[in-house]
Design a protein that fits this description.
Layout lengths: L22 H17 L1 H13 L14 H11 L25 E12 L11 E15 L2 E7 L2 E5 L5 E5 L2 E10 L7 E9 L16 E12 L2 E13 L7 E4 L1 E11 L2 E10 L8 E12 L2 E12 L15 E12 L18
Antiparallel strand pairs: 1-2, 1-15, 2-3, 2-4, 3-6, 4-5, 6-7, 7-8, 8-9, 9-10, 9-11, 11-12, 12-13, 13-14, 14-15
Length: 352
């Protein structure tokens, strides 16, 4: 999909070119882009769902994607003009509204590889490896979590064979469940996140070297072995190419998690983001499967970009990868740090 009046390309055709925009011109450009994706949301989602259901794509792997119910479910959720911004990779982007619980923790270690069909510029990597990605989520109250996610060691590979390395960004977030799940109502929560500028923009262009802020409304509901999640949110991104400039973005993400057997579950997910400047709006399909072995969750997951270009504003392959694959090991445990018995998180509002 392309806008009728797309933003003018950078003079050199490279992502790193600096363009000075007047405040008024920049606001108009963002407004045109924001209106463009929401005006075209129904056709966008129908095209994405049709791609998923086509014989050439995924239906021979995931037959459930052919159902008319899922097609309507996709259409209904993706036309919502808000949702979660990045912040949760790897594994499932879409956050649950449920919390871990007081004195309960979850630790994860992951490895991920992402690739693009072409690099945005000669200075930008065509593929990326994330090594030793670390996630540490802590339940400080029955309905409050504090999460720390670090991208680990980044290794980018350029089209000319050269490689660049850097340390990944650190994201710190808090999650608050303000309405637990009931028998007929979903759980609602709020999540705020700050991405610290740990990864440099130059010379490797593996990050933006800017601080970003995100806030999201979290909604989740369980029906037996199936859990549905929807995240609605807003983000403010720093711009490494224009001095004293920021970009406002709306993104969307939702997921369905299915318990297949004891200790084994799978998920499917669609995540999208509005465009800004020379970046267009993107939609990525993700899926994965996990199982418990010796008390540790082993999760294999992958992603395929359904729509959008390969430019990503130096945010290191956030929804701009052509495809990706990853492995994550995760362990949830209780730790009585202060001598207080741990409490279960607010997963639902039913009483025993």
């Amino acid at each position: 999909m392309r806008f009728k009046n797309p933003p003018a390309p950078f003079p050199t055709g490279e992502v790193g070119s600096v363009v000075e925009l007047t405040p008024r011109a920049h606001r108009i450009k963002k407004l045109q882009i924001g209106k463009g994706i929401f005006r075209r949301a129904p056709s966008l989602v129908q095209a994405s769902a049709s791609t998923l259901a086509s014989r050439e794509s995924f239906h021979h792997i995931f037959p459930i994607l052919k159902s008319s119910f899922l097609h309507k479910f996709l259409l209904g959720l993706l036309t919502i003009p808000l949702s979660l911004v990045f912040a949760q990779r790897p594994m499932i982007l879409t956050e649950s509204a449920a919390t871990l619980g007081r004195q309960r923790y979850a630790a994860g270690l992951a490895f991920e590889y992402l690739s693009k069909s072409s690099a945005p510029s000669p200075q930008s990597p065509k593929s990326l490896s994330r090594l030793f990605v670390v996630a540490l989520h802590s339940g400080i109250a029955a309905n409050v979590d504090v999460n720390t996610d670090w991208r680990g060691r980044l290794i980018g590979y350029r089209a000319d064979g050269a490689s660049v390395t850097d340390w990944g960004d650190l994201t710190v977030s808090t999650k608050f469940t303000f309405l637990p799940e009931g028998r007929a109502t979903p759980a609602f929560g709020l999540r705020t996140s700050i991405k610290l500028p740990n990864t440099k923009y130059e010379p490797g262009r593996l990050g933006s070297n800017e601080m970003d802020y995100f806030t999201h409304l979290l909604i989740s509901k369980r029906w037996g072995a199936v859990e549905a999640r929807t995240n609605l949110g807003f983000g403010i991104l720093g711009d490494p190419r224009v001095v004293n400039n920021q970009d406002d973005v709306y993104t969307l993400a939702f997921a369905t998690i299915i318990a297949m057997a004891e200790g084994t579950q799978s998920f499917i997910e669609v995540a999208g983001i509005t465009g800004y400047q020379d970046n267009d709006e993107k939609v990525v399909f993700r899926a994965g499967i996990g199982t418990a072995i010796l008390g540790v969750e082993w999760n294999l997951f992958g992603s395929v970009r359904l729509m959008g270009n390969h430019r990503d504003f130096a945010t290191a392959f956030e929804l701009s990868e052509t495809w990706g694959i990853g492995l994550m090991m995760r362990k949830e445990f209780a730790w009585d740090v202060f001598g207080v018995e741990g409490e279960k998180g607010l997963e639902d509002g039913t009483e025993e």
